[in-house]
C-alpha cells in the first residue's frame, strides 16, 4: 500500500490529469493547439482572460520580479493548467499565486555557477543554511 500525498493518491492524480487533458482538447477544438503550453500570447488573451484582481496580482509580480513577457505568459499558461486540474473554468488569484510560487522555486534552483551546474553550497550560504 502506497502512502497518499496531500494532493491525493496516484490514481486520483491520474484522473485529474486525464480530466484536465480532456478539458484542453475540448477548449482548443478547431485550433492548431492541443495543450495550454502551446498557447500563443494572443490565444492567452482569448482563452485565459484575467479578472481585475488577477490582473492586479500579475502587474505586481511583473513589477516585483524579473519577469519578461515570455515568463509572464508562462505563468498564465501554468495557472490555466492548475485551474484545469481543479476543474475550474476561470483562472483565480490562487491559481496565479501557485504558478508564481512554482516560478520562484524554479529561480531558486536555477542559481548556477559559471559552468551551468547548480551550486547548492553557495545557494545554502546565501539563504543562511548550512
Protein described:
This protein is mostly helical and 130 residues long. It has 6 helices and no strands. The protein is globular and about 40 Å long.
Query: How is the quaternary structure best described?
Result: single chain
The averaged pLDDT comes out at: 82
**N to C succession of SSEs:** HHHHHH
How many strand segments?
A: 0
Radius of gyration, rounded? 17 Å
Total domain units:
1
Specify the structural class.
mainly alpha
Termini Cα gap:
36 Å
Question: Which spans have pLDDT < 50 for at least 5 consecutive residues?
Answer: 1-5, 112-130
- Distinct helical segment count: 6
Instruction: Summarize the main sheet.
Output: none
Helix content estimate: 55-70%
Portion of residues in beta strands equals under 5%
How would you sum up the global shape? globular
Question: Keywords, please?
Answer:
130 residues, mainly alpha, 6 helices, globular, disordered N terminus, disordered C terminus
Quick take:
The chain is mainly alpha-helical.
Layout: helices, strands, pairs:
Layout: H1 10-27, H2 41-47, H3 52-64, H4 69-85, H5 93-109, H6 120-127
Helix pairs in contact: 3-5, 4-5
Amino acid at each position: 500500500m502506497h502512502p497518499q500525498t496531500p494532493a491525493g493518491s496516484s490514481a486520483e492524480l491520474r484522473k485529474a490529469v486525464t480530466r484536465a487533458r480532456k478539458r484542453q482538447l475540448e477548449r482548443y477544438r478547431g485550433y492548431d493547439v492541443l495543450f495550454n503550453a502551446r498557447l500563443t500570447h494572443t490565444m492567452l488573451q482569448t482563452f485565459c482572460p484575467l479578472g481585475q484582481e488577477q490582473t492586479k496580482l500579475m502587474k505586481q509580480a511583473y513589477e516585483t520580479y524579473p519577469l519578461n513577457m515570455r515568463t509572464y505568459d508562462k505563468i498564465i499558461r501554468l495557472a490555466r493548467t492548475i485551474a484545469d486540474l481543479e476543474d475550474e473554468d476561470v483562472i483565480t488569484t490562487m491559481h496565479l499565486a501557485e504558478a508564481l510560487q512554482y516560478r520562484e522555486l524554479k529561480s531558486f534552483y536555477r542559481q548556477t555557477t559559471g559552468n551551468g551546474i547548480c551550486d547548492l553550497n553557495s545557494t545554502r550560504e546565501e539563504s543562511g543554511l548550512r
